[in-house]
Structure formats: C-alpha cells, structure tokens
C-alpha cells in the first residue's frame, strides 16, 4: 500500500480527499507548507497531493523545497488548485510538479492520476534497481577479468625440464612458448655456469686464455 501526503490548509478538502484515498492508500496530512516539509522528511511519502494557495508558504515553494531534499527528489507531486491560468500551470511544472489537477475535481480523475503516478514511480524505482545491479555486476566482471589477467601472468613451469604449460595443456620449451606469445626473438648463447657444467674443456680453455691475456 502506497503512502500519500495531502497538503492543504482547508480541513474540509483534507477530509474529502482522505475519505476516498484512504480506501486504497495510507494517508498522511499536513495543513501548512512547513508541516508538509517536516512530515515528508521524517517519513517520505510515495506521492504528494499539494494545494497551491496556502498562507506563509504556497504549494509551489513547498514543492521546490521538497526537490532540494535528496530523500524526496523522486517523490511525485500533484497540484490540486483552482488556479486555472496557464502561467500558474507552468509555474507548477517549473517548481518540480508532475501533474496539475484543477478544482473542482472529480473523484475518479484524482484516483486515476494518483494510480498512474504511483505506477510510474514504482517502475522508475525498479529501473534504478536494475541499473544499480547491472553496474554492480559489471564491476564484478571487470574485477574477475583483472584476476584472470593476473592468473594468466603466472606461468606453470616444470621444476625439472623447465618446460612451460601452454593454454591447451601441452608443455612447450621456454623458447617456443615465448616466441608464440610475444614478439621477442631469441639469439642463442650459453651462460657461464652451463658452459662450465656441460662443456668443461671449452670452459677451461676460455679461462686459460683469460689468464694468459
């Protein structure tokens, strides 16, 4: 059940609206602009039915202040007023209102407008939830991709033959793997330790030449 805040300085108007709206919605009332702002901030409604001509603060100003509250930015405001001039209608929309109903109004019209804006608000909230969920999943996907890139940077290498396991599960020589996955090319040589281990005669000859030089 949605919650409607009725804002009107006339008790009779509040009574009439409250009687038929309370059959389908939870109804809260405020008899002044200041009271409306306090009530809405304390317990945000799903929709506001706003009279325009009120003492101290008119409905347009109340609506503008509602729009300044982050908690109430998305709450639809429907103006209920006898001000039929087109300039007043424009002022209502410029203040942040979503709809404008002229007095005297018909019960069926009010119910239909209220239902429509309630459904629009619910649809927007669902879209916002979907968008937030999509953003969350996109962030999770990006994080997973980063983890995959990190894992791909760790190469399984045999402790004995020093071959590297490729993406297909086969084992390649280091030279072959690097050539396939990078633009690097090899020039063949031998380090001093391997030269001494595998070619001791050549190693000794080189050392002898160094010593004689």
Describe the overall structure:
One of its GO terms (biological process) is regulation of DNA-templated transcription. This is Response regulator receiver domain-containing protein. The modification 4-aspartylphosphate is found at residue 51. GO terms for molecular function: phosphorelay response regulator activity; transcription cis-regulatory region binding. With 213 residues, the chain is α/β, with parallel strands linked by helices. It folds into two domains: 3-128, Rossmann fold; 164-212, no CATH class. The chain has helices at 11-21, 33-42, 59-67, 86-94, 107-152, 174-181, 192-198, 200-212, and strands at 3-7, 26-30, 47-51, 77-81, 99-102, 164-165, 171-172. A five-stranded parallel beta sheet has the order 2-1-3-4-5, sandwiched between helices. Helix 2 runs parallel beside helix 3 and helix 7 packs across helix 8 (200-212). It is rod-shaped. The model has no long low-confidence stretch (mean pLDDT 85).
Structural descriptors:
single chain, 213 residues, alpha/beta, five-stranded parallel β-sheet, two-stranded antiparallel ribbon, 8 helices, 7 strands
């Amino acid at each position: 059940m949605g919650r409607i805040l009725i804002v009107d300085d006339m008790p009779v108007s509040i009574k009439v609206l409250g009687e038929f709206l309370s059959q389908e919605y939870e109804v809260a009332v405020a008899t002044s602009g200041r009271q409306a702002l306090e009530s809405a901030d304390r317990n945000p409604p799903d929709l506001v039915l706003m009279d325009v001509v009120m003492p101290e603060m008119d409905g347009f100003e109340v609506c503008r202040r509602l729009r300044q509250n982050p908690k109430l930015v998305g709450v639809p405001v429907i103006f209920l007023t006898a001000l039929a001039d087109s300039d007043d209608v424009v002022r209502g929309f410029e203040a942040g209102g979503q709809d404008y109903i002229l007095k005297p109004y018909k019960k069926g019209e009010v119910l239909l407008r209220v239902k429509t804006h309630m459904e629009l608000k619910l649809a927007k909230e669902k879209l916002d939830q979907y968008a937030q969920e999509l953003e969350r999943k996109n962030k999770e996907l990006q994080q997973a991709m980063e983890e995959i890139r990190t894992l791909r940077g760790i190469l399984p290498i045999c402790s004995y033959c020093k071959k590297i396991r490729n993406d297909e599960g086969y084992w390649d020589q280091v030279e072959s793997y690097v050539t396939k996955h990078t633009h690097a090319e090899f020039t063949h040589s031998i380090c001093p330790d391997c030269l001494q281990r595998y070619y001791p005669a050549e190693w000794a000859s080189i050392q002898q030449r160094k010593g004689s030089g």
